[in-house]
Amino acid sequence: MTTTVTVRMYNVGFGDAFLVTVDVDGRPWRMLVDCGVHSQGEVRSISDTVRAIIADLEAASADGVAHVDVVVATHHHADHITGFRLPEWEKVRVDEVWVPFVEDEKDPDAIALKRAQTQTAERLTGLIDRRTAGVDGGAWPKAVVEARWFAMNSLGNADATDRLVGRNGKRFAAPHKVRYLPKLIEAKNHISAAKGAVTVHVLGPSRDPADLKLMDPPANAGWLRLDEDGPPEGVDLADTPLFDARYAVREMAGLPPELSDAKAHLRLDALTNDAGLLAASSVLERSVNNTSLFLVLEVSGIRLVFPGDAQEGAWRHVLDDPVKAGLLRNAAFYKIGHHGSHNATPKRFVGEVWQDGGYAMLPWGLVKAWKDSIPKRELLDALHDHHHTVIRADAPQELPGRVSVHDDLWSEVVFAVRT
After folding, report:
1. Residue 8 is part of which domain span?
2. What is the pLDDT of residue 199?
3. pLDDT tens per residue across span 118-128
4. 250-267 burial string, b = 16+ CB within 10 Å, else e?
5. Domain count of the chain?
6. Distance between CA 397 and CA 207 in Å, rounded?
7. Based on the domain organization, do 128 and 204 belong to the same domain?
8. CA atoms of 132 and 137, how far apart (whole Å)
């Protein structure tokens, strides 16, 4: 019996869209992991990408009807799910959709966490709207532009989420099952699929109460002082610093001239308000990223790691567990988290856990605001030093026998085993 595992990365730009196909003697099973793009980092319109994915599914189907066994939406950021808002999905048969437990409207942990994230995003967008009232869009400070991107990205992308969970009239071609993961019972987080040919290990997000607190935007964040409606109930602003200590401007030698000048002229309000908005939006961004589904697909000894955009705390939850970390050790494939940012692929994973000689895919497109920081050069160098083959969406390259490219639309890597 011959089994092939194919991972196809669609070049959306700064976003994720991965189609995994497991073929056991001509019987294919398919999982689509995310479909979205950042509005400032598109290589092509998300509509074009969605049409390309659906066309590929139709071409691969015996009856010409597009079909996906499992759709995974790792978390509700736009660069991962915005494509699902489009009506073209109504002609695609989907058997199951897997989403993080935070989207479950019947889960007490999810209700509290989602409410906190949504209210934080709404409050931030309100502050930013006030900050920019009457200001031409081209004149917004960079910090404010980035803050708005982060805040809007964290609002939940309702139309796409509605389709994924089948509510408010949004649907695929037929009703589908929704799994909210991980389950509270650990045994249910190892899911058999493709008639036993595939095992999917759900490693995150964490359900640990201590970790959930880290995903919850802090209620007493200093930026709340900027809100004319006042702080939430129970927050004493007299004991709350205006900004997190990491972002405070202190008396120190060698301050950049613009900071010294602002401080000298008592104009820190303009400077620190923008910095505070960005800091708060960044905290919110991380909290949503840390709700990402963190999956390992196992097929005949081949392991594929899909961590969504899991960041420091979510990775620690996995790496500090010997059983979970062991599933990463001999992985054949790694989807590089958060487009190669500095806080999404731990040095410990690359340097100590993942064995040398694997394949990694980098879903990336240029966002000018992050052109010097994403992808992180040190991360790419570390992957190279450990002899991993990095396949970049923005620079596809054929590797005969393993990696193929279709124009600039997608790249794919194929693993084959005999069982």
Report:
1. 2-108+156-214+293-418
2. 98
3. 888 888 888 88
4. eeeeeeeeeeeebeeeee
5. 2
6. 40
7. no
8. 8
Nearest to 33 by CA among 334, 371, 409, 419: 334
DSSP 225: G
Helix then strand then coil, in percent of the chain rounded to 5, is 40, 20, 35
The answer on 257 and 208 residing in a single domain is no
Burial of 345 (0-12, 13-18, 19+ CB in 10 A): buried
- Determine the residue type at 306: F
| Residues 6 or more apart in contact with residue 311 via CB below 8 angstroms | 286, 289, 290, 337, 338, 343, 344
Q: What is the dihedral of CA 73, 78, 82, 84, to 10 degrees?
A: 20
Separation CA 304–CA 358 (nearest Å):
10
Integer Cα distance of 340 and 373 in angstroms: 9
Q: What pLDDT was estimated at residue 220?
A: 41
Looking at the fold, whether 343 and 282 belong to one and the same domain comes out as: no
> In which order are the strands placed within the sheet that holds 190-193?
190-193, 198-204, 294-299, 302-306, 333-335, 359-362, 389-392
264 and 344 assigned to the same domain: no
Q: What percent of the chain stands above pLDDT 90?
A: 60
- Cα distance between the two ends of the chain: 5
Average pLDDT of every residue of the chain: 86
Question: pLDDT at position 251, please?
Answer: 46
Please give the structure tokens belonging to residue 29.
């099973």
Evaluate whether 28 touches 68 at the Cβ level (below 8 Å): no
Residues 121 and 188 in one domain: no
Residue 162 and residue 203 share a domain: yes
DSSP state of 373: T
Residues 203 and 254 in one domain: no
pLDDT for 126 equals: 84
Say what the pTM is: 0.87
The answer, yes or no, to whether residue 8 has pLDDT greater than 80, is: yes
Q: Which of 286, 305, 325 represents a domain boundary (last residue)?
A: 286
Sign, CA dihedral 404-406-411-413, equals: negative
Lowest mean pLDDT segment, chosen from 47-51, 257-261, 324-328, 357-361: 257-261
Shared domain check, 173 and 139: no
Dump pLDDT digits (tens) for 154-210.
Answer: 876 899 999 999 999 999 999 999 999 999 999 999 999 999 999 999 999 998 877
CATH number of the domain encompassing residue 210: 3.60.15.10
